[in-house]
Amino acid sequence: EKLPGVRKSGYVLPDALTSLEDVTHYNNFYEFGTDKESPSRTAGSLKTRPWTVAVEGDVQKPKVFDIDELLKVAPLEERIYRLRCVEGWSMVVPWVGFPLAELIKRVEPTGNAKFVEFITLHDPIQMPGQRSSVLDWPYREALRLDEAMHPLTLLVFGLYGEVLPNQNGAPVRVVVPWKYGFKSAKSIVRIRFVEQQPVSTWTQAVPSEYGFYANVNPEVDHPRWSQAKERRLGEFFKRPTLMFNGYAEQVAHLYAGMDLKTFF
Amino acid sequence: MPAWTSRRSSSGTKRPRPGANALRAAKAAVFLAALIPLAKLSTGAVLGTLGANPIEKIIRTTGYWTLSFLLITLAVTPLRILLRQPWLVRLRRMLGLFAFFYGTLHFTGYLVLDQFFDWPAILKDIAKRPFITVGFPSFVLLIPLAVTSTDAMMRRLGGKRWQRLHRLVYVSAAGGVIHYLWLVKKDISDPLRFATLLTVLLGFRAIVLLRRRVRAVSAA
């Protein structure tokens, strides 16, 4: 199903796109199984209409958005981003969405709002993977407010010009291209503005391996493997991983003065 | 020689034994069956149906079958005792060699497909990535076992020494299971299945050993 009124953007890459087939059949989405082929097979059980997203917490104008209303908060644009997984593989995806900042401006965060937390649907009937306690459901992720407001941070409704396939986080997800993929929460039902730094699901599961920031960084190894290189899907030779996944120019200032080994 | 490896242990009972032809047929069947995972993988590689990350698929699949064949090999002794089918031991060498075969494919897959001979990266992996630190020696340990698997080598080493050497397979299997356990991010159900099976298989041997000790003590 095509998304209407999608305009092209200046966010393009010299890199070749990863095929639609690969983007939609190689998914880390534990709500639908822990291997990468499962989500494409089992995510059919997810019902993406009706769907609401509650935007709440330290904001002047909290609001429960119907998904079709949320889609119209700002014009949809196509942006081609690199996606780097913490496991050492990467792809290039033409996402469709608008900057999360557009939504944030609407709800007017108060001075207390320092972090934005994203919460995924919790429904073991629709999400069979949640019947196993492999992670602490629902899936939670969070960004610092300035990271969430950054123009690169995208609220995503589609890919390849089409409505987001269920296995890619339908009907709405966030995409933060300079961080490892797990930071980009899928199938979001709640967005909370809070003062204290939230503990995200993977950090809670294995604090030594998955930090709050999770910025792509070839110089800071994952405790169990190197992050210096990555395999771009479809390529034989590994390529060197770029600082902040190649978005250093745009985002490095967010972390000025921080020791990225400590705040990994 | 422990009772469960001695061919004489069956001499007292009159169990039907497969003839030479039946044994040959059984060996051929096991040999062909053991090649099925490789055949499926090769077909997938040729047809391009190994998914978005075929290299990962090849390495994972060959690793899975290395561990599986190690456990199947370790199951031969318990099975032949429990089922009273001493001839099963005649399949053991082939099964063990298939574990080595898939282990070689797994290791070569890592070396060539994953790293493409990037020696500094490989050495760093062995030193710094715990699951590779334990996986690498687990594979290397299988090499002397494969080399000494022939009848001639068995005779040259002598039964006792040969057997002592081949107990290394316990270490290799345990290392392989830990390698798998440390590889996965969070869902440890698959590695735990292997760990449970290995515990049962090694536990069986411990019990047999213990009972023999007890019997030896009470006889004395």
Q: What does this protein look like?
A:
The complex is a heterodimer of chains A (264) and B (220). With 264 residues, chain A is an alpha+beta fold. Helix content of chain A is 14%, strand content 25%. Chain A is built from seven helices and 13 strands. In chain A, strand 12 and strand 13 form a beta hairpin. Chain B is mainly α. Chain B has one domain. Helix content of chain B is 76%, strand content 0%. Chain B is built from eleven helices and no strands. The chains are: A alpha+beta (264), B mainly alpha (220).
Give a nutshell description of this structure.
The complex is a heterodimer of chains A (264) and B (220). Chain A has 264 residues and is α+β, with helices and mostly antiparallel strands.
Structural features:
heterodimer, A: 264 residues, alpha+beta, 8-stranded mixed β-sheet, 5-stranded mixed β-sheet, 7 helices, 13 strands, 14% helix, globular, B: 220 residues, mainly alpha, 11 helices, 76% helix, disordered N terminus, molybdenum (chain A), Protein-methionine-sulfoxide reductase catalytic subunit MsrP (chain A)
